[in-house]
Amino acid sequence: MFALVDVNSMYCACESVFRPDLKGKPIICLSNNDGCVIARSASVKPYIKMGAPYFEIQHIIKEKQVTVFSSNYPLYADFSNRFMAVVANLVPQIEVYSIDECFADITGMDALSSWSELGHQLKNDVLQCAHLPVGVGISSTKTLAKLANHAAKTWKKTGGVVDLSSPSRQKKLMAILPVSDVWGIGRKLAKRLNQSGIETALDLSRLPTSQARKLYSVVLERTVRELNGESCLQLEEIASAKQQIICSRSYGHKVMDYELVRQSVCAFAERAAVKLREEKQYCRMVTLWIESSYFTTQQPYHHGHETQALVYPSQDTRDIIQAAVSILERLWQPNMKYSKSGIMLSEFSPSGQIQLNLFESGPRFRHSGELMQTIDHINRNKGSIWFAGQGIQSQAMPWKMKQQFLSPRWTTKFTDIPLVRC
DNA sequence: TCTGGGGTCCTAGGACCC
DNA sequence: TCTGGGGTCCTAGGACCC
Fold it and tell me: Which of A37, A184, A278, A414 is most buried, by CB atoms within 10 Å?
């Protein structure tokens, strides 16, 4: 038995915890670079679409007096950890599925209280201890639990908890939900299914598995089985090791200067290397891309990317910066207005050791591990040092992302802790 | 002027091997 | 002149998720 616990409008909820004045008021949160809308409080949903570009909706924001926030990931990550801890405290096992939702294995827990009571307990505890509102969906497979959660969020009268353990209730719900609401059915697949006369989740559940596989894919076959109560997706308690690490950002302003693009590349390479060391991995491949704006009509969209192998698997920032910059030199085109760059690390191994050959003499740097450890340690303990390649922070850095509406890091930064005056 | 970022999995097709 | 069949591995691209 699975429960899916999901925070309602997670980012907006986090923003209002230390701002009681915003309770019930319209709020939106923007993507990195203040690009588009990625979270909306309930009252905003009727008039601002998910993903709407910020600059297009400024008049609505003014008219409706919507409070706007830039993404504050340190804040959201901290609240996410608190939320997961509360849920983990109540159930035998959880799988952290994303920053705002987790699956819980609740098999056998109905011996103590009904599924619905358990759902309400989860909901109340999270609200009380982590100050976040959640919806809970309960059923025999992950896909059905997702569907139950969807229902809990959609219909107020459910009280935010839906027990979808009985097959007859499953059928009733599936009959009224469009197939596009099913987990794993995206835009393209929904369109194809609709064209074959499959409109509702119930229609999909009645597609013979052999046909689902033959006409579509093994993934869809699994979804059909899950909708019929056959559990195909297990709880993955331990997050599997990452296979790639990506660090990429749109620039705050367009950049035509090689030196500035190089700075951004160095900064992203450095950040990616930190993530790599956090994963305790070494990478063999470095991919870099730089691109112009996809939207502008002033020049054709340009996108250059290239992958380079390191001689040795490495987690040394210097190796990764060097590979990235050497790719950049080859990709660079003058007179191009660049608006985004990114780096991807892949082909991981748990250690830097490989078989040497006759012509290689060993890793480039001595004491690499110790140096990286020291740098990471200093940066973790509120120090801040970085490689010179990303420039001096006091200079103008047009590639740095815009964060016009950033809230304080209420819970993770010492100087941002709220003051209470008595 | 201004349009996010970070992932996974699957499939088809090509290269290559015997 | 006639030109097989089975397998693996890799890559690019598509689709999906949040």
Answer: A37
Report the alpha-carbon distance of residue A287 to residue A307 in Å, rounded: 4
Distance of CA A319 to the CA centre of its chain: 27
Which CATH number is associated with domain A8-73?
3.40.1170.60
What does the pLDDT average to over A45-67?
Answer: 95
Render pLDDT for A274-290 as a digit per residue (tens, 0 to 9): 999 999 999 999 999 99
pLDDT of residue A81: 97
Residue A353 pLDDT > 80, yes or no?
no
CATH 3.30.1490.100 fits A244-390, yes or no: yes
The residues of chain A that CATH labels 3.30.70.270 are: 75-227
Give the residue range(s) of CATH 3.40.1170.60 domains in chain A: 8-73
Whole-angstrom Cα distance, residue A257 to residue A253?
12
CA of A80 to C1' of C11 (A): 37
| pLDDT 10s digits, A102-119 | 999 999 999 989 999 999
Name the nucleotide nearest A56; use CA and C1': B2
Q: What is the pTM of this model?
A: 0.92
CATH number of A75-227: 3.30.70.270
On strand C, nucleotides with any atom < 7 Å from a protein CB are 14-18
**Range in A56-60, A198-202, A291-295, A380-384 with the lowest mean pLDDT:** A380-384
Measured CA A50 to C1' B3 distance, in angstroms: 12
C-alpha–C-alpha distance, residues A169 and A163, integer Å: 9
A366 or A257: which carries more pLDDT confidence? A257
DSSP A109: G
Nucleic strand B interface residues, CB < 7 Å: A 31-33, 35-36, 38, 51, 53-55, 217-219, 240, 242-250, 254, 275, 293, 295-296, 339-340, 342, 401
Distance A214 CA to B15 C1' (A): 27
Contact yes or no for A390/A266 (Cβ under 8 A): yes
Residue–nucleotide distance: A31 CA to B7 C1' (Å): 17
